[in-house]
Every structure is written in structure tokens, then in C-alpha cells.
Amino acid sequence: HCWIARQLGAEAALVSLSGKDSYGKTWRIFELPYVKWSERRKDDVILVPDFASDVIDTVEGRVIAYMQVPIHMRQDFDWRSDRITMWTDSPFMLDLCNKAYPGKHVPIVPNIVDDEVFPFIPQEHREEGLAFAFPRKGPEYIAETRRIYRERGGRFWHFELIDGLPLMDLAKEMQRPQLFLASGDIEGCALPPQESMAAGIIVIGKNARGANFAMEHGKTAFVANTPEEAAQCLFDAEDLQKRKQIAEAAHQQISRYF
Hints:
The structure is a single chain. Helix content is about 25%, strand content about 15%. By secondary structure, it is an alpha/beta fold. The strands form three sheets. Strands 7-6-8-9-10 form a five-stranded parallel sheet, with helices on both faces. Strands 3-4-5 form a three-stranded parallel sheet. Strand 8 (about 180), helix 5 and strand 9 (about 200-205) form a beta-alpha-beta unit. Helix 5 (about 190-200) crosses helix 7 (about 240-255).
């Protein structure tokens, strides 16, 4: 969001305690300028992520509180104040915000998918039958889906479990698979399914109670909230023409967030 603000002509910078870049090149931060937290100006508008909401009341000027993850939503700041604007990133999170902060106007400001980091690669140019899953979320769902698929005779899809990779290393790996199994049960607005859709990877999995709002079953993805449903979708996704059709539709859907 900082990068986009600068592209639109705004004076914008990232803020850290030291005033230095703590991300490094692996996270692709576009060489944005940094400002030391103690050197921010009174007339600056400060965008504060939800996990740091306890610092909001220490800011004298205007604040944008960006609520993105359910477990980080707290009422430890004066959210009723007119100087505080609130954002969120999905219909699911909007419903939670309306309950936690009644009467506060909270627009949806979606996550941004970097189509240079996750370029579209057609299904036929990817490794046939390769599926990725992230065991950090929902490992039982992943394991049970694979078990049911194999027991029913499924042999087309073979899985690689990916965990702990920096963004740029992950982006390189994501040029390989034809399918991503989304296993997160509760999300604010999960980026991996969106990044997969941008890249031409078929997504099968949970819609995370509506947080993965870009997933439309049979159109832009295969929604499967149980392992049984996911295993059946794996069989359905063995059809190359069906995958190509969904991959194109998913890319068009998610391109609104490039």
C-alpha cells in the first residue's frame, strides 16, 4: 500500500523503530524509504497493522487501523475517535469488525497481489500433477484429503509440503505446481490462494468461512471445506481443460488486486 501511495503521488514511507529496513531483499519491499518511529511528524497519517493496535493511542495525528487477522482484533485503542479510520480486507473480516466496533465505518481495502512476483504461467507449462500444500495451517485436513484421494484410487496428484520459505524463494517455487490445497480454517484474507490464482495455479480447499472470497466453486476455484469434498475435487481437477478454464477465470478475478 505504501508503494501504491507513492505511485499516486503521495509522500509515503515505511516506519520502523530504527528507521532502517528490517525486511531485506527477500521480501521485495521495492526499496521504499524508511522513517524512524520517534521521528514521525504530527501531521503524518500513520497506517497501523492490527497486531500493533496498542500503539494507536500514542499517535497524536490521524491513524488508519488495518484489521486483517481475527486473532489480532482488540479494543485496546480509542476506536470511536474521529481521528481513527479503520480498514479491513475481506467480507468475513468486515463482519467481525462490525461486531467488535459497532457503528464504526470500516471499508474493505483488499490485499495487493504482486503479478511480477507471481506471474501467470499456463497449466500446460507447469509440472503435471504437482500440488502444493502449506502444513503450517490445517495439517490434518491436508493429510486426510491425501489419504482419501489415494484410497479412492487417485494417482494423478502428488503433493509437496512447503513451509518456512521467504517470499522470493516461495515465488520461485510457485512457478512449478498446477494445484494449491488451501487448508486454513480461519483467515482474515489469505494471500496464498490469491497469489495462486494470479499465477495460474488451481486452488482447491477451504473458503475460510468466506475470507477467501475470490474462490467461487467451479468458476475460479474448487471450494472444499471437508477432506471428503477436497478429495473429490482432486479427481475433478484431473481434467486439463477444466483446469485451464478455471485458471483463466481465476486470473481475471484476482487481477483486480494487482
